[in-house]
Automatic annotation (TrEMBL):
The lineage of its organism: Bacteria, Bacillati, Actinomycetota, Actinomycetes, Pseudonocardiales. One of its GO terms (molecular function) is FAD binding. It comes from the Bacteria. Transmembrane segments: none annotated. Signal peptide: none annotated. Residues 3-329 form the FAD-binding domain. This is FAD-binding domain-containing protein. It comes from Amycolatopsis acidicola.
């Protein structure tokens, strides 16, 4: 069986890991020119820790885990107002790029990785899927899986415009590298004002800045990075603390992420020979703290269903039957995340 996976972040390589071990011929296509090793700290939580061990990757993950000791809330002058220590040793914190590296290294000898290309058309004739690419020659696959994130191209081609399935939760987020000296080693610093948050995470000799703010859906071109940076500057112009330095740093970096905090709500995760996993299927949003775990768990659930059922329709139905309740539970955590991270009443002033 020949399978195409679109997207090489967390869900795609996780699914490729399991399918390759089942003897499946897997091709994974990624629009970026190479492995996307940037991104913010992420967490492997709950049953996903045991899943990582089952994959034989726990030692590699532990070797690069962060040791964030907790969160310190500060006021406009940077004075510490409240400290919340990290008391959970079970969850594993690491940079997103480290997990991408571990997953792709674990699959590179068994999976065909194609970087710098993407899916542009899908033609499912019932017996297979003819796939057209932006750069490569057309190819035919038995099954196609979209693991290409919140703004999934596979989902758009299969189910329709993303506006029909994205649910904006009223928050925007920006993440980019910063000078770790602006933070506190092995701690997260946060400054909150009503409806806004700025955080600096400093561990393993690196720093990341995170900005969040409440807003209705904004009209901007997601490809216009300059406009996104200006939006951030306009929103946080009076935020105090080290925000001016952080915003200056944002202007100079190419590793800049800005997007709405949204969830994906689809009535079904599959159509014909095409199915979705990870954020493409049921994005929980970063505010749940469970996006990485959900991606890994969903990939394992789909692979297990495919191993148990030779008929893809039966496998897809079983995948959804088993994993959708957990995905729904994870998505339900978002309101707590919004109130905790971007409250209308700040923790520290």
């Amino acid at each position: 069986m020949r399978i195409l996976i679109s997207g090489a972040s967390i869900a795609g390589p996780s699914l490729a890991y399991w399918l390759a071990r089942q003897g499946t011929e897997v091709t994974l296509v990624e629009r970026a020119a190479g492995r996307r090793l940037g991104g913010a700290p992420i967490d492997i939580r709950a049953e996903a820790v045991e899943l990582t061990a089952k994959m034989g990757l726990l030692d590699a993950v532990e070797a690069v885990r962060g040791n964030t000791r907790g969160i310190v809330f500060v006021d406009a002058d940077g004075a510490e107002a409240q400290t919340i220590p990290n008391t959970d040793d079970h969850d594993i914190e690491l940079y997103r790029g480290e997990l991408v590296r571990i997953l792709t290294d674990a699959t590179k000898d068994e999976v065909e990785y194609i970087y710098g290309d993407g899916v542009t058309a899908l033609h499912d004739d019932g017996a297979g899927v003819d796939v057209e690419f932006a750069r490569g020659a057309p190819r035919r696959f038995d099954l196609v899986f979209g693991a290409d994130g919140l703004h999934s191209q596979v989902r758009r081609l299969t189910f329709g415009p993303e506006q029909e399935f994205l649910r904006h939760v009223g928050v925007y987020v920006a993440i980019f590298p910063c000078d770790p000296a602006l933070g506190k080693p092995d701690w997260g610093l946060m400054r909150q004002t009503p409806g806004r948050l700025v955080g600096v995470y400093s561990f393993r000799g690196t720093g990341k800045a995170a900005f969040m703010f409440r807003a209705p859906r904004l009209d901007y071109d997601y490809r216009d990075i300059g406009r996104q940076k200006n939006l951030l500057r306009e929103t946080f112009a009076d935020h105090g603390w080290i925000v001016p330095q952080l915003l200056d740093g944002a202007l100079d970096t190419e590793d800049f992420y800005f997007d709405s905090v949204s969830q994906v709500d689809l009535p079904s995760w599959s159509r014909g020979r095409i199915a979705l996993i990870g954020d493409a299927a049921a994005c929980p949003s970063p505010l749940t703290g469970m996006g990485t775990s959900a991606a890994m768990l969903g990939a394992a659930a789909l692979a297990e269903a495919l191993a148990e059922h030779t008929d893809h329709e039966t496998a897809f139905a079983e995948y959804e039957r088993k994993f959708r309740p957990r995905a729904d539970e994870i998505q339900s955590m978002v309101s707590t995340g919004v109130e905790m991270l971007v409250p209308l009443r700040p923790v520290a002033t």
